[in-house]
Amino acid sequence: MRELQYDAVKGGAILLVVFGHVWLGLADAGLIGSARLAQTVEHAIYLFHMPVFFFVSGLFFAPKQGPLAFLRGKALTLLWPLLLWSWVEGALLAVSGQGADRGIVGLMDVLSYPVPVKSVFWFLWVLFVLQVASYAVMRLAGRWHPAVLLVAGLAAIAVFVLGVDAGAAVIIVENAPYFLAGVLLALLRNELVRPDPLPFVVGLAIFLLAEVVHLRDGAGAGWFQLSALLATLGFVSTMGRTANTVVGRALAWLGKRTMAIYLMHIILTAGTRVMLLKLGYTGLGLHAVAGTIMGVAVPLAVDAVVQRLRLGRLAGFGQRA
């Protein structure tokens, strides 16, 4: 059974993911007049929007399958979408000529595009690694696995607090605390989104406090993961309690379709920006609204067709009942 509170959380977060990429594209194109405004909005959104997805994934991570069935399931739900949509993105870059400066011009360039992981697809790879590692700990450590996962999460935070160079694993280490926090708090999943007024206010206050600290100290602060974790908890607590409102139900509907939006939005937001610029439109408001709408609406339309044809798994979106 789905939990609408967390669908609402994901719906709110995916809107911020799409808008965040629209905003970054506009900043790179020089369409945001104020550098301070561009940076403030970017930092405010990027503090927590992807940690939310890692945290919620952790909350619902309770694998029961054997090792082979588990790996097969994760390969189909995470690695297959990564490969398929990396190939789609690579092909579009090659055909449009936009990939020439990255050396993407022929078939072999497209086929090799997924390695190393690029674009938004890093999330799928990192989530795959974290889930496989957590599964191994749960199987090997038995009833001691919460303690092992807690130590692993604290160690990941310590890497940045102490300024240790994590090398190529930095993106995994950076996001590990959010996923592991979700796993460790899974038993409190219902408590985090109980529809009571006081927890709603507390959650909102925690979120705002984390944002203020982050905007003051910047992304370079060693404790940024703690700020991100607090912002994530505050966002989850606040958005989850909107599930019984009109807005919350709309977000929950959107939250059930986040994979299609995530996989496709970067192509559409960039394409919308390029098209508007070619037509001579440079207004910040128009670009922000049009890019966000296209990044959400087109994937929803594609998903509707794919689901109706029962091709959700093949498309990498997952098949809904």
The whole-angstrom Rg is 20 Å
Distance between the termini: 11 Å
- Proportion of beta-strand residues: under 5%
How many E strands?
0
What is the string of SSEs from the N terminus onward?
HHHHHHHHHHHHHHH
Shape: globular
Structural class: mainly alpha
Largest sheet: none
Work out the helix count: 15
- Overall residue-averaged pLDDT value: 93
Uncertain regions spanning at least 5 consecutive residues: none
Number of domain units: 1
Helix content: over 70%
Describe this protein with a few key phrases:
321 residues; mainly alpha; globular; membrane; acyltransferase; O-acetyltransferase activity; transmembrane; Acyl_transf_3_dom
Question: What does this protein look like?
Answer:
The chain is globular. The protein is built from 15 helices and no strands. Helix content is 74%, strand content 0%. The chain has one domain. The protein is an all-alpha fold and 321 residues long.
Question: How do you describe this structure in short?
Answer:
With 321 residues, the protein is mainly α. The chain is 74% helix and 0% strand. The radius of gyration is 20 Å and the shape is globular.
